[in-house]
UniProtKB/TrEMBL annotation:
A Pfam family per the record: DUF676
InterPro entries: AB_hydrolase_fold, DUF676_lipase-like, Lipase-like
SUPFAM superfamilies attached to this UniProt entry: alpha/beta-Hydrolases
Organism this protein belongs to: Prunus avium
Descriptive protein name: Lipase YOR059C
PANTHER family assigned to the protein according to its UniProt record, in alphabetical order: LIPASE ROG1-RELATED-RELATED, LIPASE YOR059C ISOFORM X1
Amino acid sequence: MPIAGKKIAATMQNGVVENGVCSSASVNGSHNVWSSNESDSSSADHLVVMVHGIMGSAADWKFGAEQFVKMLPDKVFVHCSERNGSRLTLDGVDVMGERLAEEVVELTQRKPNLSKISFIGHSVGGLVARYAIGRLYRPPKSENSELSSPNGSEEDPRSTLCGLEPMNFITVATPHLGSRGNKQVPFLFGVPAFEKVASAVIHLIFRRTGRHLFLNDDDDGKPPLLKRMIEDYDECYFMSALRSFRRRVVYSNVGYDHIVGWRTSSIRRNSELPKWEDTVDEKYPHIVYEEHCKAYDAEQCEPTSVENDGSDKLEGELLTGLSRVCWEKVDVSFHCSRHRFAAHSVIQVKDQSVHIEGEDVIRHMIDRFLK
């Protein structure tokens, strides 16, 4: 049998080949997707790690992963994580972040040809990815790193993530500023009494993850986790890692997302939310606003007023910290869509048969992706 034929046979034994895309599932439920043009994943040197949200699974990113591989053949190797599947998403952002970091290390050890890495996280998955990169980050010329290079190579003079060059860090409907406060969780209708009760009981439903989202965790007297994640804290290089990416992008629903509010997902104050209009772009009909925000230092960031901006001091600190790096902000609207009330899932195309209206968001993501 010719070499190419042997490769095809081996690939089909280990995975499924369909329409130029090969996919395989591991025993722990994670999902790998790559181009099968040459039936050899070694041609792809860019690892794209996709992270699902709360109570989710690797299948949530199935459509997105396949579109990436179809549009960027032999360029990317997509790994849909499920080390934190289902009820494991209730264990806390830090615990999930540690698991994801370990998962990435194990994957890179098995694929020494990789040289670049990108992350795409949906909902809480974006926070988990932010935690994981803080653990994976290796400072320039650092000799002490708990997570070493997967191929045992000499220290890279540049900062890396697990020995790989950071490229794109993308979040989709992620509560970067937490979920407490005025209208950060839209289904609470912005009623202060509802939001106060939710903050008090959220841990009964979503356990440690709920505490992290509502910023009321107090681990051994430490600041809330999301506040720790706006700086390099202890042995976690949260902000250095985030800064090391060539691009940082947030996709946000401007409305009808009843889980994550526009302000927290787009890292803005109320006064900074843009006025948007229906798009006339046929290629991306649901993209209604795009903005490139430059980085600001602490002195340039205006303090957030509780009275004037509907937010609290801690939320303001999170916003100020995250604004110290530049972001591309992409605002999305499904207000005319049949499934607009499921915007939180449509923006990800969680289920292709139901949420396909969000495919232009995935296409927009791929068209601007640094390869």
